[in-house]
Amino acid sequence: MFAAxxxxxxxxxxxxxxxxxxxxxxxxxxxxxxxRVIASxxxxxxxxxxxxxxxxxxxxxxxxxxxxxxxxxxxRRVVVYPVIASPDRGHGDETLDPQRxxxxxxxxxxxxxxxxxxTRNLLPVPEELSLDEAACLPVAWGTAYRMLFTQAGIRAGxxxxxxGAGGGVASAAIKLALGAGATVYAxxxxxxxxxLAEEWGARGIxxxxxxxxxxxxxxxxxxxxxxxxxxxxxxxxxxxVVAGATSGMNPPADLGRVFYLxxxxxxxxxxxLVEMRGLLRMMAATGVRPVIDRTMPLSEIHKAFQLMIDGExxxxxxxxxPTPEGAPA
Length: 329
Ligand SMILES: NC(=O)c1ccc[n+]([C@@H]2O[C@H](COP(=O)([O-])OP(=O)(O)OC[C@H]3O[C@@H](n4cnc5c(N)ncnc54)[C@H](OP(=O)(O)O)[C@@H]3O)[C@@H](O)[C@H]2O)c1
Prior knowledge:
Layout: E1 2-6, E2 18-22, E3 32-41, H1 44-51, E4 62-63, E5 67-71, E6 77-80, E7 83-84, E8 101-102, E9 114-118, E10 122-124, H2 131-135, H3 137-151, E11 159-162, H4 168-179, E12 183-188, H5 191-200, E13 203-206, E14 215-220, H6 227-233, E15 234-242, H7 255-260, E16 264-267, H8 273-286, E17 292-297, H9 301-309, E18 316-320
Parallel strand pairs: 11-12, 11-14, 12-13, 14-15, 15-16, 17-18
Antiparallel strand pairs: 1-2, 1-4, 3-5, 3-9, 3-18, 5-6, 6-10, 7-8
Helix pairs in contact: 3-4, 3-8
The chain binds NADP nicotinamide-adenine-dinucleotide phosphate.
């Protein structure tokens, strides 16, 4: 089958290590299922792997792609919950399992015609959602859902600031927070992305700009470039939830502000299977939908990565593998 495989890592030329090649169709282990992939989507995580961040070189070669939807062996529309982990080892929460692995870390991922995953990781795609829409959800939307509803515990009427409106997680957080009845401010470096955020119902603020009121919750995935602003915009007792640091991991901590204003800083990673079910139900019930910047064939995945590297995307890029020989289109 045709697949995009990470064969080496390079911090300055990450795409040189990504090869399109034919690989064997994966065998199915007991307790696992094979999925014919119809759509996947790109995440920063795929780029980190190619840059050699957070992914040991011994794990290569590895088929990339953390988000997958397709058909299971019974022909059902399924979306893959992307955390391969044991809730028991994580005290009931897969994301706290010390041995957890995101799809494409220790097991081959979704940029291929087929993949195999534990059968418990397959969830039905609600009929209200298209497969392309569902392909955007597992990593970015699952992460945003946990950040907002589990970690920060937002309620209708809360004021939420989302940094970096164009990002996959950030655009999900904007739409989910609006769907939950929050007032949402969203920052971006790009006027076009601010206009888009306003179209969705948020109030756009240029990166680092003045927010008209202190907020209850900040959604942080940008890191160094926005951290000081995030703390300044937070009301006393408010919460910053952080799930990423694209622009750098080590901003000044500003501890005086944190303790004097009793700000809460919470880390967040991925989501549980239960949260992913909640996300799918919320999407079906509210009509909230992911932002798809564009769809591209797997054969053009290098171009898709370049758009992400250049910050040209607003929302998600959906990737379509070729239809396997003999399979229905
Ligand atoms: N913990 C988890 O489970 C988890 C899950 C998913 C992602 N993440 C992490 O979260 C981060 C975002 O992931 P993503 O997939 O949403 O990435 P993405 O789609 O590439 O979004 C990154 C966004 O950050 C903003 N940004 C980047 N560099 C910036 C800078 N120098 N100054 C200001 N803004 C900047 C941009 O917003 P504008 O262009 O609008 O300014 C960009 O759209 C990544 O670090 C990723 O590894 C973590």
